[in-house]
Amino acid sequence: MRIETLLNKCLPLKSFVYSNVRLDEGEFRDKLVVTIRPRKNGVVLCSCCSKEGSVYDRLSVRAFDFVPLWNIRVVFEYKMRRVNCSHCGVKVEKIPWATGKSHTTTAFQLFLAQWARKLSWKETAETFGSCWDTVYRSVKRVVNYGLAHRNLDGITAIGVDEVQYGRGQKYITLVYQIDEGMRRLLYVGRKRTTKTLLRFFFEFGKKRTALLKFICSDMWAPYLKVIRKKAPQALNILDRFHIVGHLTKAVNQVRIDEVKKLKQDGYDESVLRHTKYCFLKNPENLTDKQQVKLDDVLDYDLKSVRAYLLKESFQLFWNYKSPYWAEWYLEKWCGRAMRSRLEPIKKFVKTIRNHQPLILNWFKAKKQYSSGVVEGLNRKVNLVTRKAFGFRSYEVLKIALFHTMGNLPEPESTHRFC
Ligand SMILES: [Zn+2]
């Protein structure tokens, strides 16, 4: 079987012909060069308006990278023509295997983008004899196609989340769809200001916003303000994941302060050494070593231990079913926590009290949106941001996030190459 036959099966061309295939043996890597020529009586289309025109002239040969065959680079060579278009004037012609000025075929772009979900972008480039830049541009193209063709109908529940990235205090705002059966990233915005979230609602549109029933978010004031203003009909739920996160931070602060104080006053602080994760992790996630350490430290009368026990008793709050009893427990807990004389914990209580109705909304929503949803998505985002792709640039990060979490439709193709 000839390679031309295989090509005609995988990527049939209407107005063009695969006319010749030759193997160029290179010093580092061989390549298969596929020459394409226009089919006799084939039409020539304007790349601007896709309408038929007449041939104006021919340009020099252009090469396009195609999906490698048996680890041999495959290159299409074609002498591009210019079209005399009655609408646009003289323009370069439209070709079915690539778009714009790209030297990578659409099929290869899709191939790279699909692999870039399984491997890092660097690994993808290395594996398929490409470069990081081409992988990035391929992913970007597939993502942009997906964003233009995605369906945003029927969204009733969203989660708003913020994530730190790069060096320093740089934030991005993320909006997810968290409906049962459809969880995906909907929006990425720079910073975490009022403006950032307002832009989401602007892009999302009034009609769709009016259909929202639940919005999960953190206690971040700018978000709460925008949600109140733009989607007053939706139940704003402060999600468990973020609340627990704030409490965990407070417990850690108590421990840090205590270690410092003990050292200052000349006491032995060794009992608190290596206890950070013993206090922060959920008991069921502790390693055996951490469990022994925790059992040991709990025997001491320490502020850190008191903070830890308060954190553990706070977990019971989430077990309540009725909003009434949940509130009763929360108030009881807050009273006890205020009497603890632990400053970071008291600060946490104040935040909780300021947001009590929104926290109780979770029980009103019958716990539909468990912490697991937002937490799982948040974890995935952190995985993407941490991968060493050179994601210090916001634009690249945004593309990578949509690529892995956007659940976006992909451009149609005649053949799946991977
Ligand atoms: Zn035209």
Helical fraction: 40-55%
CATH architecture of the largest domain: 2-Layer Sandwich
CA gyration radius, whole angstroms: 29 Å
In terms of per-residue confidence, which ranges show pLDDT below 50 for 5 or more consecutive residues?
Answer: none
Query: Tell me about the biggest sheet?
Result: 5 strands, mixed
Order of helices and strands: HEEEEEHHHEEEHHEHEHHHHHHHHH
Question: Which term fits the overall shape?
Answer: elongated
CATH domain fold name of the largest domain:
Nucleotidyltransferase, domain 5
Class by SSE composition: alpha/beta
Strand proportion, as a percent range, falls in: 15-25%
**Bound ligand species:** zinc ion
- Count helical runs: 16
* Structural domain tally: 3
How many β strands by DSSP?
A: 10
CATH class of the largest domain: Alpha Beta
CATH level-4 homologous superfamily of the largest domain: Ribonuclease H-like superfamily/Ribonuclease H
What's the mean pLDDT score?
88
Q: Alpha-carbon distance between the termini?
A: 21 Å
